[in-house]
Amino acid sequence: MKKSDLRANVSFEELRREGLVEFVDVEEEENTLVAMDLSYLDNKLMKYTHCEVHPSMILGVCASVIPFANHNQATKNTLQSAMSKQSMGLNSSNLQLRMDTTSHMLYYPQLPLVTTHPTKYISVPELPIGCNPIVAMACFTGYNQEDSIIINQSAIERGFFRSVFYRTYSTDQKYDSANNTSTRICIPPQN
Known about the structure:
Oligomer: single chain
Low-confidence stretches: none
Distance between the termini: 78 Å
Number of strands: 6
Radius of gyration: 26 Å
Helix content: 10-25%
Shape: flat
Structural class: alpha+beta
């Protein structure tokens, strides 16, 4: 199909039905040559087998939110992608209606100072996923080497990195007919 044949108002589902959109798994990825966008397809020297929907999607959702990922080593991007799955913030806007078994939530989540284009598509502006600390790299008495960190005590007391952990428990109300006793789930009386 040529670029001129593409209609402007065609849905993603229509493209998939016509066979123009193909989902490629990890095994198939080994034998594909993927163009980053339609402009690459004009190259006569390279025979591309596929074209990416958008250049940022070649990284995936977790890696696409890393700012300046092209300036990092690949291992740092891989580590950040794994860590972003564990980030805290507001996990949903309907927290009171959800029945998650466990949930972590940050008290004061903040929008990142630097973002990427795809962050607006995964609701980061509405549901922030972290804090913006002010960091200084300095040797202080030799105790902040490697992975250790020194944090201002007053920042902790003001609520910096404070979070809440929700856990769902289940129980049953029971009646023992032999002893004529029962357990009851209720709010305890004031007295």
